[in-house]
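Lecture notes, unit on protein representations.

Consider one protein chain, 197 amino acids long.
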Amino acid sequence: MNSTLPVHMKNNANSNPYTMSRRSAQLSMIRVKPAAGNPRRGWLTAGQLTIPVALGRGGILANKREGDGGTPRGSFRPRQLWWRGDRHSRPQTLLPARIITGADAWCEDPGDRHYNQWIRRGEGEGGDRLKRADQLYDFIIEIDHNTRPRIAGRGSAVFLHLARDNFGPTAGCVSMTKAAMLQLLRLIGPRTRIIIG
């Protein structure tokens, strides 16, 4: 083993789930757990970093359904970062990154063949718009919830994104402060597992 690697990178990934992968310099796993006494709030642990998060208004649910307000329980992987290039510079991350445009949206209609996928929409067309007037979607970590296979009605547009000022509950996402998001982005990559629940 290379003696110049930092101590936290020398550990075997099986002995410590929060170790950095030597090949990719990314955490192998992060965890999201509900806070004691409040299922709409939680804690995200990524290596030595532990941050408060807001969860869905329905808490963490094993059987996620469209519109239930629940954050899905399970193991997921981050797919890519979406960010507002008109408001922020590109953050440091190992994730593929894409600037949000006015046409970017997410399909939340279980009857649509593009359900739970990115779509382009013109003015007045439906879909969860990624370019918002508020700051909630200034940084979005897209995860692979309900993607392989996509099942109609099992939930869509579940992201890690920025929190409201009062840390109010989400519609099913995991949200955090901008400072926490920027720290998290430096630690994770496409191979990082996100364990919720």
